[in-house]
Structures are given as C-alpha cells and as structure tokens.
Write a structure and sequence with these properties.
By secondary structure, the chain is an alpha/beta fold. About 50% of the residues lie in helices and about 15% in strands. α3 crosses α6 and α5 runs parallel beside α8. It is elongated, with a radius of gyration of 25 Å. The two termini are about 20 Å apart.
Length: about 300
C-alpha cells in the first residue's frame, strides 16, 4: 500500500495540469513518500483528457478517470476518494489556487498530531474582491448555521485523511454529494489547517452557482428549514386565532369599521408568499428524494488511463 494517494479534479485545466503534476511530484519526493496520483476529469471540453493520457503514459504511479460529461465538482471529488488506495489520502484542486506546496503543511501537521484522522484546510480570510468574499462568506455561514452537524466556514478542497476515513466515505450510498457534509457526517477526530487560497483567475462560482451551492448544502445537510416552516406556520395559526378573538370582541362592542383594506391586501400577499416559499422548500427536499430513489449512478466514467 502506498503512503499517500493524491486526489485531484480537472475541468478545462489544460493550462495548469502539467504545472500541478510537476509540482506535486516534487513535494511528494521531497517528503520521501511512496504515492499514487489520481486525476478525475469532470467532462472537460478542451485538451485536458489528452494531457492526462500523456501523463499517465509516462508515470506508472498515475491514474486518470474521464467522466462522460460534467457531473459536478463534489461528485468528482467523491469519485476520486473511492478510487484511492493509499494509507493516507490527500484531496486538493489542480488549478494552483490551492498551492501544491500545501501538502507539506498538511504532512507536517499529521506528524505533529498523530491522533488526528482528518486535517481540513480552511481560509482564515477569504480570497478575491469584496463582492466575492462577502457572498462566499454568507453562503458558508448559511450552510453552517443550517446544519445539525458542525460544518466549519470557509473550508477549501484540500484535506488529508486516513484510509479508515476514506473507506467509510467510500461506502456512502447517497447520489447527491456535498463533500463538507460528507466529512462532517463521517466524524472521526478532525482538525482545521489554515492555508492561503490564491485568486489566479475569475472564480467559476458566479452568484447563481453560489446560490445553488447554498441550496444544495442546506438540503443535503439539514432538515432545519422544514422545522422552521412548521414553527412559522404554527405562529401564524396562533396569530390568526388571536385575531379572530379580537374581531369577535370588537363586533360585540359594535366598534368594527371597514378601514384597513390595504393592510389586509398586503397581509394576504405576504402570507401567500410565505405559503409559496414553504411549498418550494418542501419541493427542494422532495426533489432530493426523487434523485436518490431513481438509482442512477453519481458519475459515469468514459475513459480510464
């Protein structure tokens, strides 16, 4: 068994993949580790698969799995985890925004804290422009606060974990994967490792994709929104009963008027919006169930090198 499996994903990474491959090997050799490198290509449309084929042809310690289409970053990461075989697994991105040199930071932490099973990278301060930092922070705080499990904010892809953790995660049968929740649910002894994430190019995560990430993260990790809907509905029912008692009391006293029509209209529109929002939230959870019970695979591998 190799000392470590390096797992990384690619998507239209033809400009960075050779640099990443060379740098990560240098750090692995510097640490004097036996290793395997596993690439998961998430349906690239440029020359990335051809480059991966070339790298694998020159290196007996490298494997590449090419998806038949784009299935998503988190599913690609999970696929890599299931394919790894080392005593330790190191998950990272290949776009160089998470430096290959971080491996040495994680390995040093592993040597200092032998009792820890999972070392997770996180940003002390988020990268990018103000708008990117603000929206990213809001998304992570929203996900973290909505989860029944503890999910640290501002996590990055890079993490180092034992084969025991890998084997547990590989046996998960869910189809819709959210990596942060997957590790939180698995548990074990975990420790955060502060690292710097660079901003070398415009982020693939637009505001729309961040919103989708937030929805996926929340519906994958928590049923709190359903509890909130119940509590909000109960609050409105109590408020309605109180209003009925108040109106009955005013009617008996003969002090009712026809004033307040606009207020009633606004209240009606507000409650209608709440109803639609509640139905939509329940619909998100039902869609999760729909995707899980269909039994389709989380990913399809087109080629393997």
């Amino acid at each position: 068994m190799k000392d470590i499996s390096v797992i990384t994903t690619t998507y239209n990474s033809s400009n960075t993949i050779r640099i990443f491959d060379s740098e990560i090997r240098n750090h692995l050799q510097k640490l004097n580790l036996s290793y395997e490198i596993i690439y998961i290509d998430d349906g690239s449309t440029d020359g990335t698969p051809d480059i991966l084929k070339e790298i694998c042809g020159k290196s007996h310690d490298t494997k590449a799995f090419i998806f038949s289409r784009n299935f998503g970053h988190h599913k690609a990461l999970w696929a890599g985890i299931t394919k790894s075989t080392g005593k330790w697994s190191y998950l990272t991105d290949s776009d160089l925004e998470e430096s290959p040199a971080n491996l040495e930071i994680f390995w040093r932490e592993k040597q200092l804290h032998s009792e820890v099973d999972v070392f997770m990278g996180h940003q002390v301060s988020r990268r990018g422009a103000s708008w990117e930092r603000i929206t990213g922070s809001i998304v992570w705080r929203f996900i973290s606060s909505s989860s029944e499990l503890h999910i640290p904010i501002n996590l990055v892809t890079s993490r180092l974990f034992t084969s025991k953790v890998r084997d547990v995660i590989s046996n998960f049968s869910e189809k819709e994967i959210f990596i942060a929740h997957t590790f939180a649910f698995a548990g074990f002894r975990q420790q955060l490792v502060p690292i710097e994430k660079l901003s070398l190019k415009k982020s693939h995560y637009s505001l729309g994709r961040k919103f989708k990430l937030a929805l996926d993260g929340i519906t994958n990790t928590s049923i709190k929104p359903l509890k909130y809907i119940f509590m909000f509905g109960l609050f409105f029912e109590i408020l309605t009963v109180l209003c009925i008692f108040l109106l009955t009391f005013l009617k008996v006293r003969g002090t009712t008027t026809v004033e307040g029509w606009s207020t009633l209209v606004a209240l009606n529109l507000f409650t209608s919006g709440i109803i639609l929002l509640s139905i939509g939230t329940v619909g998100l959870y039902i869609s999760r169930i729909f995707l899980e019970v269909k039994g389709k695979p989380s990913f399809i591998i087109r080629d393997e090198y």
